[in-house]
Amino acid sequence: xxxxxxxxxxxxxxxxxxxxxxxxxxxxxxxxxxxxxxxxxxxxxxxxxxxxxxxxxxxxxxxxxxxxxxxxxxxxxxxxxxxxxxxxxxxxxxxxxxxxxxxxxxxxxxxxxxxxxxxxxxxxxxxxxxxxxxxxxxxxxxxxxxxxxxxxxxxxxxxxxxxxxxxxxxxxxxxxxxxxxxxxxxxxxxxxxxxxxxxxxxxxxxxxxxxxxxxxxxxxxxxxxxxxxxxxxxxxxxxxxxxxxxxxxxxxxxxxxxxxxxxxxxxxxxxxxxxxxxxxxxxxxxxxxxxxxxxxxxxxxxxxxxxxxxxxxxxxxxxxxxxxxxxxxxxxxxxxxxxxxxxxxxxxxxxxxxxxxxxxxxxxxxxxxxxxxxxxxxxxxxxxxxxxxxxxxxxxxxxxxxxxx
Length: 405
Hints:
By secondary structure, this protein is of the alpha/beta class. It has two domains: 7-150, Nucleotidyltransferase, domain 5; 198-378, ATPase, nucleotide binding domain (Nucleotidyltransferase, domain 5). Helices cover 40% and strands 19% of the residues. It has 16 helices and 13 strands. The chain has helices at 68-82, 110-119, 127-140, 160-163, 183-197, 199-202, 250-259, 263-272, 275-280, 286-292, 297-321, 331-336, 338-345, 357-361, 383-395, 397-404, and strands at 7-14, 18-26, 30-39, 47-52, 59-62, 90-95, 106-107, 146-150, 205-211, 215-221, 224-228, 326-330, 375-378. The strands form two sheets. An eight-stranded mixed β-sheet has the order 5-4-3-2-1-6-8-7, sandwiched between helices. A five-stranded mixed β-sheet has the order 11-10-9-12-13, sandwiched between helices. Strand 10 and strand 11 (224-228) form a beta hairpin.
């Protein structure tokens, strides 16, 4: 393969059962040339999918991926075959937890990897697999610059009243505090809002609702996060596909006494067997539940509880902001479920939220009524592009790209 004069950034987004990736080409601006995913890792029916601009980058095939070690090996082999050794310029990773230290994208060093291992206890559902990915790519591509982009960074400077947990103060020194997540998504949405509506709107009172299989909300004022629904872990806040959201902490002790449920089993329950799945007992997918709700009361209750809890967070954050100028829906549910958006916004007219039904149902970019006090938007978020942008800025690849032309 002939060397390419353009910078190419590989982005990696590892989940508990998937590895998503994309390649962006930089020639003045970033363009995604392909994206893909290995999904259902550790489950039957694992697949490796790629979609790109050329025919060779469009395929879907079954693979055997019993764990992340095997899955990353499959991905690395394909990347080496697909790209010449000098074709990639840098690699960027979504890292769920940055702990108290990391507040912006940084180049990955051996010292950072050791510190990330130390943070694994903060998020044992995601961090071990993400570190595994970093170490595997570092081993296969030791000379490539590699950058960690932290999902907690957007919330790093939360006000003290929103950051501190109301537990004995000594635990703050151990890093126990409210962190918040979905920061890459929120950073992207704020940049998009600034681009679309201008700096004045982006500096206003904004609630961002990232509603997907993982769901959270964020209150933003003057372009900065002042509060967010997720807390020390991503299990807090609103109910999600399989996560409980906020619970009475006394449940842990009660279930330990009455059912012998230990800490590990309780953590498994609130992360993987609760939320929409736990309430409906049928599915963790919102669209499935919407299809079922007229004939299954459990599905209807799951949808209702989700919408009710999101509505409560909007009300709480409007109070924290001292009013509201813009509400943004994003994520798989926020972007694609107009009936959920309508139910969330119903009876929020007292906050100035007034939806235009036709606009909402047609999936328009702005779904609020003309002249209503609050602008309600639906936006597509792109964490992979945010990672690529961060890598490009940190490594000043725009200058490299221009110099190579």
